[in-house]
Amino acid sequence: MKLPRFLSSMIFILSISSTTLHAQTPVINPERERILEVYDLITQYHVDKPIGQKLSDSAIKGMLQSLMDPYTTYFTDEEFDSFLNYIEGIYSGIGVAVAIKHGQIVVDDVYEQSPAQRAGILPGDVILEVDGIEAVNEGVLLAIANLQGPEGTRISLTVKGKSDTRTVDLTRKKVQVPVVRTKVLQGQVGYLSLTMFSDEAVSTFKRELNKLEASQIKGLVVDLRNNSGGTLSSALDFSSAFIAEGKIAILRDINHNEELLKVEKGRDWKLPLVVLVNENTASAAELVAAALMDHEKAIVIGTPTYGKGTVQEGFPLEFGGTLKLTIQEYFSPNHRVIHNVGVYPNIFVGDPQEQLEAAAFVLQNQNKVVLNPVNGEVRINQNLDQSDIPFAIRHEGKWYLAMRKMAYLWNGKVGYDVEERKVALQLGTKNRVYPLGKSPQVLVRKGTAYLQLDEVLQRYDAIQKVHEKDGQLLLKKSER
Question: Which domains, ranges and CATH numbers included, belong to the chain?
Fold first, then answer.
């Protein structure tokens, strides 16, 4: 499981309130007076002559801890500046994105011109120790936190690569996270990834989107995997690129008053659109994914999202520091709950590489498969299938097709019942359930259920078979 890159994932109202909490507190409040009375007694009489700031810091932390809300946080002025830099994709560290796999820290990405890149750290490397902290199981979270720190400070890593294990000493520096990436996939499908919702990031995203449109793309993949959120205003601005008008979220405050977050002068996106999400798609990214689903603008593919459905606002304190306080919960336009639930995708795909493959399948309307019984080759839209989980396999002289890939390719649905060991496949209007391990029509290979071709053609009239030369078979979506 990946972790959000820095601090808490959030939707944050960037326009900081100028009204302090002190000014909002009633003049006569017994609980407030009780706290002040204890503070005065400690500072006047305790034998250790406690420092007032340490007492107040501890009191603040204690109050926040009692809320059981990880997104309500107290920042010193220095910490708040770092937080604002984070929202803009700037932080001080070694320049890597990491994932936790089997209780270890695995490098997922290495940023350009970063200390990690200069030290030769590569994606796939395993970080075994961070400044002497063993980065395994319980020590993983602390080790990850220590990857970041003040600019100019030193850090020592023990890294296991493909061929060796070595110790490297790095100096932390300011790192600019590449928040927008773009390319054109096969079939003139545009691809845009966004790792943070900030005003600058969304502005860059829109510019890149315009360039892709000018290149005559036929569909678009928006990758929000590992997007840990950002500001509410940027989420609204992003949504306006795809939704002409209407609500994108419902905000509810302490008194259950509801406020609609609406797009009023956006544009009506017409091209096929897929949004990729995973367990670290959080906060503002979840809001956007849910809005595009509810407006039926996008097919969402991936795994259920993080489940952070609250909004924070910053309150500068009169005597220094800033309180980031949860002030609202948000819901999707159709009033779906996001907090502690997340957004469940239209098509569940667990493997990251397969998620992008599924997106490409969904965006191509004329998906055709050619099966060659002579050499066992499988071609999808004229491209040789060389994926780790092939679309089709041969077993005892018969073809078997991967159920979940059929669902991607021909706009179907597949569902698994782990406890009952059953798999359900829907193609067109037909839906059937197959027991795993008991049905001769079903094979399981590398965790993927394959359905015998004869069964597919007999039970699902949405798929059409055409005989071609040399015994090859053409499979395509039926035009009926």
Answer: 10-87 (no CATH), 94-176 (2.30.42.10), 180-311+324-353 (3.90.226.10), 366-477 (no CATH)
